[in-house]
TrEMBL record:
<dbReference type="InterPro" id="IPR047057">
    <property type="entry name" value="MerR_fam"/>
</dbReference>
<dbReference type="InterPro" id="IPR000551">
    <property type="entry name" value="MerR-type_HTH_dom"/>
</dbReference>
<protein>
    <submittedName>
        <fullName>MerR family transcriptional regulator</fullName>
    </submittedName>
</protein>
<keyword id="KW-0175">Coiled coil</keyword>
<keyword id="KW-0238">DNA-binding</keyword>
<dbReference type="InterPro" id="IPR009061">
    <property type="entry name" value="DNA-bd_dom_put_sf"/>
</dbReference>
<feature type="domain" description="HTH merR-type">
    <location>
        <begin position="1"/>
        <end position="71"/>
    </location>
</feature>
<keyword id="KW-0804">Transcription</keyword>
<keyword id="KW-0010">Activator</keyword>
<keyword id="KW-0805">Transcription regulation</keyword>
<dbReference type="Pfam" id="PF07739">
    <property type="entry name" value="TipAS"/>
</dbReference>
<dbReference type="InterPro" id="IPR036244">
    <property type="entry name" value="TipA-like_antibiotic-bd"/>
</dbReference>
<dbReference type="Pfam" id="PF13411">
    <property type="entry name" value="MerR_1"/>
</dbReference>
<dbReference type="InterPro" id="IPR012925">
    <property type="entry name" value="TipAS_dom"/>
</dbReference>
<feature type="coiled-coil region">
    <location>
        <begin position="77"/>
        <end position="104"/>
    </location>
</feature>
């Protein structure tokens, strides 16, 4: 059976221009002609085209494909092995580039201008989920508090980060101890820890009145990615995020004379 250039273009998913280019390059020339003199592709031509497209998908240049098809028994396997090695190297290179891009995005979104080694030294297990950072950026982009927080974060030095993360680690240890001891989430110890967290935010990032602190705590309870910013997964306990959220709400009520967020609004 024979096929026109247009037919081959349609079912092979290549352009007519590409087929003409293969023809001109001597890579694939239609082997038949119609009664009117138009070139037609045979079944054998289509089989050859399949091979060409296979090698093109693997990234082989046309000159190398021509060499493979000229003597497939002698060259195909070695060419494929060489291409496999090249693809492996390319994958490794792209993975490295992806990691560099991820670090660049993280710095851009958090304002933390530290090298990867410095980040590990300062932050330890605490890491930022980039999907959460992106969502937060869109969600709070118009918030003055968010803008101030990002600006102040960008201005922190390595020693600033070391100090604030040290404070956070000490606070986290106290929170875990209170939770493990069975202290009530609306008790004085839990509320004092909530207050320490609120003041920590105000001291290092942005003014954090009780109503804002409640919204932050609600985010901790609703999204594990947010809670991982204060307690890494390896240190978390079942129900700990909800415990902290309730403690924050209790502390906020203590500071606002028992008024709820809706009453304040």
């Amino acid at each position: 059976m024979s096929y026109s250039v247009g037919q081959v273009s349609a079912f092979a998913g290549v352009t007519v221009r590409t087929l003409h280019h293969y023809d001109k390059a001597g890579l694939l020339s239609p082997s038949e002609r119609s009664n009117a003199g138009y070139r037609l592709y045979s079944d054998a031509d289509l089989a050859r085209l399949q091979q060409i497209l296979f090698y093109r998908e693997l990234g082989f240049p046309l000159e190398e494909i021509a060499a493979i098809l000229k003597d497939p028994q002698a060259n195909a396997l070695e060419h494929l092995k060489a291409r496999q090695r090249q693809l492996g190297d390319e994958i490794a290179r792209l993975q490295q580039l992806a990691e560099v891009a991820e670090r660049a995005i993280e710095v851009a979104q958090t304002g933390v201008s530290l090298t990867p080694q410095e980040r590990f030294e300062v932050f330890g297990e605490i890491s930022l989920d980039l999907s959460y950072a992106t969502e937060a950026e869109f969600k709070w982009a118009d918030s003055q508090g968010h803008q101030e927080s990002m600006a102040r974060a960008a201005a922190h030095t390595k020693e600033d980060w070391r100090q604030l993360m040290g404070e956070a680690a000490a606070w986290r240890a106290e929170l875990l101890a209170a939770y493990d001891d069975g202290q009530p989430d609306d008790g004085e110890r839990a509320m004092d820890l909530a207050e320490e967290h609120r003041l920590h935010i105000s001291r290092w990032f942005t003014s954090c009145p009780p109503d804002m602190h409640r919204r932050i705590a609600d985010e901790f309870a609703a999204d594990p990615r947010a809670f991982a910013l204060v307690v890494p997964p390896s240190q978390q306990r079942p129900g700990l995020a909800a415990y902290l959220c309730k403690a924050v709400h209790a502390n906020a009520a203590r500071h606002t004379g028992g008024r709820t967020a809706s009453e304040e609004d």
